[in-house]
Design brief:
Order of helices and strands: HEEHEEEHEEEEEEEEEH
Shape: globular
Number of strands: 14
Low-confidence stretches: none
Strand content: 25-35%
């Protein structure tokens, strides 16, 4: 039986998920899935990666989507099937939400990321960004962003009659897979920061890209993080965000704290 037909508790390795408070609350976990489940998830990632890399989005391959960011990515769609579908399950979303102590709307954005060796470090940011969705939810209430119907970043719709709904990122998750055994000095970690506007090298903590491990945190005005340049090996991960209502985000932090996406021609 494929793992996509098994309940989530049977796929988890039941290892401790550790909460760390510095520089902001986050969870790290190793050996997240049982060996069989991890191998099937990794194998599916490799199948997608074998399709090659593209400098232009829309080819169905890993592609560059953001200027100034060295990752190649392939976004999740509602049609995703196979072992990677676990990340779009209601059980997985609810697990992450409980962990972070937040409520979520069921709307999910995410995908697969791949950094070539020597990719540049990213910019320090907090992921407290908006995201737009249209109603296309599954029977379990999960609604995956669909860029062919609605721009996740700005809310433009591309089919008559669709109405976009603005949400705000609530929980971020990075699951590391398909990486070489990691050693100190390899790079490719996720840097965590005490302050925004600081230099990339001034991280307070760094989470290494160990296979079958993850990083989870609530998206807040203080959840500063970024990718750190990988010096020796490519780096691969699954990344996803859960969302909350904009009203909830505004009531907690004020509208000015939400970081809007730049428009074309603006610096991001």
């Amino acid at each position: 039986m494929s793992i996509e037909n098994l309940p989530l508790p049977e796929l988890l390795a039941n290892r401790p998920w550790l909460k760390r408070l510095h520089p902001f609350p986050h969870y790290v976990a190793r050996e997240v899935f049982i060996e069989r489940a991890y191998r099937e998830i990794e194998g599916t990632f490799r199948e997608f990666l074998s399709g090659g890399l593209s400098e232009q989005p829309g080819t169905g391959q890993f592609a560059r989507h953001k200027s100034g960011y060295d990752a190649y990515s392939l976004g999740f769609t509602p049609q995703l099937c196979g072992p990677l579908r676990i990340f779009l399950s209601r059980a997985w979303a609810d697990l992450l939400a409980r962990l972070a102590g937040v409520s979520h709307t069921g709307e999910v954005n995410g995908g697969l990321h791949y950094h070539l060796v020597g990719s540049r470090s990213g910019r320090v940011h907090n992921d407290l960004n908006p995201g737009w969705f249209v109603d296309c939810e599954e029977s379990d209430g999960i609604n995956v962003s669909q860029p062919d119907l609605c721009s996740y970043f700005h809310g433009q719709t591309f089919r008559e009659g669709l109405v976009a709904r603005e949400r705000v990122r609530a929980v971020a998750m990075l699951f590391y897979l398909n990486n070489q055994p990691w050693r100190e000095g390899d790079g490719g970690e996720t840097g965590l920061y005490s302050f925004g506007g600081t230099s990339v090298e001034n991280y307070a903590a760094a989470v290494p890209p160990l296979n079958n491990s993850l990083l989870v945190f609530e998206c807040t005005p203080y959840s500063y993080h970024t990718f750190l340049s990988n010096r020796r090996h490519p780096r691969s991960c699954v990344i996803m965000w859960l969302h909350r209502t904009k009203e909830e985000a505004v009531s907690r932090w004020g509208e000015a704290k939400i970081v809007n996406w730049p428009r074309a021609g603006e610096k991001g």
